Recover the amino acids of this structure.
């Protein structure tokens, strides 16, 4: 897929996720997630970060150090009924489980994930 098509697809998916404000500096939802080639480029990475023994994200350092370029799964956390924030944060209207799973399915198909 061309970079332009890849960017459009990701932006279309991201726009379907309701936005909300996290607690500043909180990283309680940060852990290993899948990365598409597009997301790696946006974060200026050549490969996904190594999974850490404690299962926390390598970018969770007093807050997300790549928040603007975070992958789809990070964007979904707190915005979907079955991915609720442990602190009760989230948009006024959560995405249904079905809608959240549909976005993940489209992401996986577009990026060749199994």
């Amino acid at each position: 897929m061309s970079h332009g098509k890849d960017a459009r697809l990701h932006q279309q998916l991201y726009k379907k996720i309701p936005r909300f404000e996290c607690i500043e500096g909180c990283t309680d939802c940060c852990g290993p997630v899948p990365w598409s080639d597009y997301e790696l480029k946006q974060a200026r990475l050549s490969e996904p970060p190594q999974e850490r023994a404690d299962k926390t994200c390598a970018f969770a350092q007093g807050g997300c150090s790549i928040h603007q370029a975070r992958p789809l799964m990070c964007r979904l956390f707190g915005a979907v009924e079955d991915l609720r924030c442990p602190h009760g944060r989230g948009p006024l209207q959560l995405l249904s489980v079905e809608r959240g799973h549909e976005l993940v399915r489209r992401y996986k198909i577009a990026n060749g994930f199994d």
